[in-house]
């Protein structure tokens, strides 16, 4: 006769947090062992790819591991991937360049208008 699984359920519903795995004990009894949910890798906030170098854990477990498991030694270390950080730096640089160019053009047009006014007066 087939052995039956001995249940010690948390609740009677087949929810995601109530999954079981059948395990044979050393005494030869089949028991239901509760399986924890799988951890997903932390993702980049900008592009959504998994962050390399950061541990894959359930949210509460990040509190018990050291900082070296949660971050990478870079700007935005445990939050953004290297490509997105590079992109941000380049974008910030280009925006600053654009501002400088705008300012220079404005000064040149102002100087040209001033010279034009002087030319008309003489």
Automatic annotation (TrEMBL):
<protein>
    <submittedName>
        <fullName>60S ribosomal protein L34</fullName>
    </submittedName>
</protein>
<comment type="similarity">
    <text>Belongs to the eukaryotic ribosomal protein eL34 family.</text>
</comment>
<dbReference type="GO" id="GO:1990904">
    <property type="term" value="C:ribonucleoprotein complex"/>
</dbReference>
<keyword id="KW-0689">Ribosomal protein</keyword>
<dbReference type="InterPro" id="IPR018065">
    <property type="entry name" value="Ribosomal_eL34_CS"/>
</dbReference>
<keyword id="KW-0687">Ribonucleoprotein</keyword>
<dbReference type="InterPro" id="IPR038562">
    <property type="entry name" value="Ribosomal_eL34_C_sf"/>
</dbReference>
<dbReference type="InterPro" id="IPR008195">
    <property type="entry name" value="Ribosomal_eL34"/>
</dbReference>
<dbReference type="GO" id="GO:0005840">
    <property type="term" value="C:ribosome"/>
</dbReference>
<dbReference type="Pfam" id="PF01199">
    <property type="entry name" value="Ribosomal_L34e"/>
</dbReference>
<dbReference type="GO" id="GO:0003735">
    <property type="term" value="F:structural constituent of ribosome"/>
</dbReference>
<dbReference type="GO" id="GO:0006412">
    <property type="term" value="P:translation"/>
</dbReference>
């Amino acid at each position: 006769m087939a052995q039956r699984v001995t249940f010690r359920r948390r609740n009677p519903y087949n929810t995601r947090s109530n999954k079981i795995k059948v395990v044979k004990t050393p005494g030869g009894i089949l028991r239901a062992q509760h399986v924890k949910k799988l951890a997903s890798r932390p993702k980049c906030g900008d592009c959504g790819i998994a962050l390399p170098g950061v541990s894959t854990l359930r949210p509460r477990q990040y509190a018990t591991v050291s900082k070296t498991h949660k971050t990478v030694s870079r700007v935005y270390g445990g939050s953004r991937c290297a490509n997105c950080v590079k992109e941000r730096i380049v974008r910030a640089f280009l925006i600053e360049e654009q501002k400088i160019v705008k300012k220079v053009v404005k000064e040149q047009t102002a100087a040209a208008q001033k010279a034009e006014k002087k030319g008309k007066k003489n």
